[in-house]
Amino acid sequence: MGEPDEATILHADLDAFYASVEQLLDPRLRGRPVVVGGGVVLAASYEARARGVRGGMPGWRARQLCPELVSVGGHFREYQRLGDEVMAILRDVTPLVERVSIDEAFLDVRGTRRLFGDPTQIARSIRQRVRSDVGLPISVGVATTKHLAKVASQVAKPDGLVVVPAGTERRFLAPLPVGLLWGVGPVTRQRLAGRGITTIGELVELDRGHLERLLGSAIGRSLHERAANVDRRRVVDGSRNCSMGAQSALGRRAATPEQLRTTLGHLADRVTGRMRRASLTGRTITTRVRFTDLRSVTRSVTLPEPIAETLTVTSVAVELAAAALRDHPEEREISLLGLSVSGLVGAAPVQLELELGLPGATRRPGSGVGVARRSVDRAVDAVRDRFGRDAVGLAGVQLRGDGGVPDAFRELAERNGRPPSDGS
Ligand SMILES: [Mg+2]
Q1: Does domain 1-173 correspond to CATH entry 3.40.50.170?
Q2: In the chain, what are the domain boundaries?
Q3: Which residues are annotated as a binding site for Mg(2+)?
Q4: Which of 21, 29, 212, 363 could be disulfide-bonded to 220 (CB atoms 3.0-4.6 Å)?
Q5: How would DSSP label each residue in 117-176?
Q6: CATH ID of 242-348+394-415, from 3.40.50.1110, 3.20.20.150, 3.30.1490.100, 1.10.287.90
Q7: Which residues are annotated as a binding site?
Q8: Is this model's pTM higher than 0.70 or not?
Q9: CA of 15 to the centre of ligand 1 (A)
Q10: What are the tens digits of pLDDT across the range 276-311?
């Protein structure tokens, strides 16, 4: 494979998107530490990040770090509208726009030079237009591969542009921390640090066989490739970005936390089971709540990394449904709940140790619960492959004919199925 001779791939990523939108909508929030979400921080402004607050952190922890934190419920419809506006600006430049979440996309601008200038000029004008037409800060990375363009946009944040010209990739990557490579979570980072490897340059110098022995062959190989900027993925337009979902009509039910947990748990179980069978993971979780007058509201969130775990998807979906209900305090009954996961991508082997940064103390990286959950999922999948899908269910998920759920499953489900604390 020949090296690409020009950096034409852009990764455009809005900065602290939800929080920036809140600051755009309400000028009083500008310059202040703002988070979206109460029980769980769904997004944090840069002012909040400067105090150590991070997306996925429990709300109580965020307030502990930053007592003057302002937490807002979130204008999800506005997020969608403004995210769509930004995507429309990107599609003015090239039809080759691959939206990977509500606020982030890859573009390939090869072939648009005559119309719009070189990739750097295009990146500049995108940033200007998003700022002037929409009012939001966006960072852009430009490089020869998707992976590197994304690293570049992360380095560019906040509100910056980083271009990595063809031929300078390794020099650019060498001094950066290994944690910027996709899929390097805290476990891998620690393991590498134990061998004195903290930068990507040190990683790429390492013999590949040695790395494979250290991290396992699949992870070792893919990390070595990323560190050397080997990434053959092309930018594909949105038509391939599919989703998986399920919904459940409820007739007329009181919208209790118990009801949400039970139904969404059941739906998450079905959807993620299909995803895992197709070796897919997804980053965007959407929950739909329909009221008894048939009006419905949706809420969605895009996670830092793609997931396919039943319990994790359940917790996120419950949090979203609770947010939707908080916005409609007059509604006490619901007639339908829906759940979908989009932004689906193939499950990577490095999935095993991603730092999810999700709600709840049980999700601390390295706590082992993520791995345990995946073991639960794998176990359930295996049982169903043999005995059909109703043979086993997670406690709290309430599939038909439950009765023989092993204690280990039950305990996990209980620990993770707690209603999200809403201390805001
Ligand atoms: Mg973003």
Answers
A1: no
A2: 1-173, 174-227, 242-348+394-415
A3: 13, 103
A4: 212
A5: -SHHHHHHHHHHHIIIII---EEEEEESSHHHHHHHHHHH-SS-EEE--TT-HHHHHTTS
A6: 3.30.1490.100
A7: 13, 103
A8: no
A9: 5
A10: 877 778 888 899 999 988 788 888 887 767 788 888
